[in-house]
Amino acid sequence: DVKVTQSSRYLVKRTGEKVFLECVQDMDHENMFWYRQDPGLGLRLIYFSYDVKMKEKGDIPEGYSVSREKKERFSLILESASTNQTSMYLCASAKHRGLEKLFFGSGTQLSVL
Amino acid sequence: AQRVTQPEKLLSVFKGAPVELKCNYSYSGSPELFWYVQYSRQRLQLLLRHISRESIKGFTADLNKGETSFHLKKPFAQEEDSAMYYCALKSGTASKLTFGTGTRLQVTL
User: Fold this and answer.
1) CATH number of the CATH domain containing A12
2) Nearest C-alpha of chain B: how many angstroms from A60?
3) Within a domain: A47
4) At the N or C end, where does chain B have fewer CB atoms within 10 A?
């Protein structure tokens, strides 16, 4: 089965720090996504990418950037972490743009103090 | 803009009772609808897609374009159905999914 691996399960950072969240998938999927999951707000799309070096803004891109230098790796960057970015971050991948099925990572719980 | 609404944050039912998790969407074109599920301490995973018209773990969902709904149903709830359920919408050629806020299903004895 497809494996989507997020580098950290829990992360604690201080306000103003630069934060990198890494995601790697092992099935040669074209599409990769970053969502944040908050109670009562569901999943909200931050950024997505449908090819190497390509990126598209999702619904809440402010305060975030992404990098996709290799097909298997999609990084989420918080340039200057703020407390309102405390959240569960989920990475996902899909083979085709039809998005027949998204495969999710186990998530990174980020706390910004 | 596309939108997915799940009006219930929590749905509590007894084991053996019917289940209906509500999902309404707003989108003017031809939508594709999905249900994703997250069991305790597990990853979010696809449960079913409206295009497949399949039944997974006893769950079914019918797309009703007139009512813009895609409710998830199961005739007899089981304890193992307790989980967080998210409805999701893919609009036209867009390469992204819009998720609802989720409904926690709690099946009690």
Assistant:
1) 2.60.40.10
2) 12
3) yes
4) C
| A111 occurs within a structural domain | no
DSSP A54-88: --EE-S--TTEEEEEEETTEEEEEESS--GGG-EE
Q: What are phi and psi of B69, to 5 degrees?
A: -130, 160
Sequence length of chain B is: 109
Residue contact B46–A102, C-beta within 8 A: yes
- pLDDT band per the 50, 70, 90 thresholds, residue B30: confident
Q: What is the 3-state secondary structure (H, E, C) of B28-80?
A: CCCEEEEEEEECCCCCCEEEEECCCCCCECCEEECCECCCCECCEEECCCCHH
Residues in chain B within 8 Å Cβ distance of A58: 96
Query: Mind listing the pLDDT tens digit for each residue in B47-76?
Result: 999 878 778 899 999 899 899 999 999 999
Cα angle B86, A107, A73; round to 5: 110
Q: Residue A63 domain-assigned?
A: yes
Nearest chain B residue to A33, by CA? B96
Q: Is residue A45 part of a domain?
A: yes
Tell me the residue range of the domain where A66 lies: 4-97
Domains plus CATH for chain B? 3-108 (2.60.40.10)
Question: Does A62 contact chain B (CB < 8 Å)?
Answer: no
